[in-house]
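Notes continue from the previous slide.

Worked example: a multi-chain complex. Inputs as given:
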Amino acid sequence: MMMLTLAKRELRSLFLSPLAWSILAVVQLILAYLFLTQLNEFLILQPQLKMIDGAPGATNLVIAPLYGSTTFILMMVVPLLTMRLISEERRSRSLPLLFSAPLSMSEIIIGKYLGIVGFLVIMIFMISIMPLSLLLAGNIDLGLLAAIVFGLILLVAAFAAVGLYMSSLTQQPTVAAVSTFGILLLLWIIDWAGGKAGDDGASELLSYLSMLRHYQGLAKGVFSSADVIYFILFISTFLILSIRRLDVDRMKG
Amino acid sequence: MANTLIQVEHLSRNYGSLQAVDRVNFELSQGEVLGFLGPNGAGKSTTMQMITGNLAPSQGSVKICGIDLLEQPKLAKAEIGYLPEQPPLYRELTVDEYLTFAARINRIAKNKISAALDSAKQRCGLEQVGKRLINNLSKGYQQRVGIAQAIIHSPSIVVLDEPTVGLDPIQIREIRDLIRELGKEHGVILSTHILPEVQMTCDHVQIINRGQLVFADKIENLNQRMQASSLIMGLQHSPTAEAITTIEHVDAADDLGDDRWRIHFQPESSPAEALAKQAVENNWGLYELTPEHKSLEQIFVDITTAEQIQPEQTQEEQIA
């Protein structure tokens, strides 16, 4: 209840800032362009695909690549959205409002987190309108689309958890954004080293840590509970770290 | 008998080796306005932050309406409204949106929010600006929004940290009226380094210096301390200094130039009458005779310097 109030306020403030609107617009524009080029290519290939039995359809050739680009763009965009969550409040000294209200630290953190995740879900919904528009012209694999969207939501929710924690560490939003992006990129590519490390155990571990690997399963339509649990653990870890960090604020002043 | 709203015992706080607040004790009852007075860096804000749960004390306890702030923070915080030095505002929201949010996080039932909003706005004089963005309001109005936020859930205790800083004289007067008004129903704790503010608004006064309470009493007793111990006398035909000092009860007479004199005496033995009599008898041409009030500033300096000389003694006084 309290968390939803906080989330609503967070969402409202996001939509009152030009940053959120411009990010929504830019992301939509870039992805629409990618979507149209992909669709164009598909239409050129379509006559040949018809000849082949069991050839991949629009879902695989148009929609999957679209979401592939989406993950990468969101990795760059989420840090910009999360950077102000706590650092800005710390800078404008509005945190005492929350601290002196009858709220626990977890309520404050989870409330803010739900607000930003709500925004990201709206963004993913906006992006998903494009593939859904294909329904007007033909069939798409709705099951696969649902799996991809579900995976994407988990992925950006994980991005947001990292961003929230980074924002709780500093007073400078830009510092939060840069460090969030750094961590996300590192976690994204961490399994690249895996193959070259030579040590099987190490490469196994590194590739297990990689967010990309856990997202790829879902993006292929394979719903594995291990991947879902990975994301849930990932998110909880960073939320707990943020709660601890805010508590330290109260202890150290 | 008024009930105790806040009870602070042995409250201490250190930042590393710096002792910001040192074993502070005090109480506040309903219907009282308590002034917290001290120079910059004395520990006023730190104390305010601790009693509102924004800062964990290093030692000591805070009880709000009998509820321990550290053990049951949620219950205790529901009884406090706090305005920090810098009002905690979301500048991108309108006044109404902001106050609604403040009401909701303070757990006001949904159907009572609009009533709470109206009464807070009315008390702080914000009826006209409800639809305006906080960012576009003047400093004085932003301060009032800050106060409105602190009183919206009608808490038992309202804590205001330097509420009149940066306001113009008219706004200061309005805020002071508001504080007195609040003091009728709520317990109010007010911190300031402006001495007349305490005189005008508070029932009780506490002076804090270097983290320690050095004076805690009713405002009347502080005023008593300010009793005159000197007079200004203006004479058209000044006699010699000796002629004045020989008058009964006069300790010393300083020549201020332009035929004006400052006459020092012991409190409670004013020589004013004797002086007037002498002046008439000797034809000194008396045209002014004014008792000089010791300013609160003077008292403050007296107390804080005494504290530095004899820290042991004042601590004993505190315990007593």
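Summary box: The mean pLDDT of chain B is 83. Residues 230-292 of chain B form a domain with the Alpha-Beta Plaits fold (CATH 3.30.70).
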